[in-house]
Specification:
Length: 57
Amino acid sequence: MDEKLFPPGEVIKLYGVYRCSCGGSEFFGVSGRRFPRSHCPAGAWRIVHRAREEKLF
């Protein structure tokens, strides 16, 4: 299975937990925001846990 890597600065489309490709950093991504700068030079983000987006009204 080909795993998609997301570069820093790209807009997040999937709600869930993302981990740096080197495994050293993790964050919870919210759709509409941008991926943060990775903590390692060659880092990109990959999704490790997909979550259902909650609508709070």
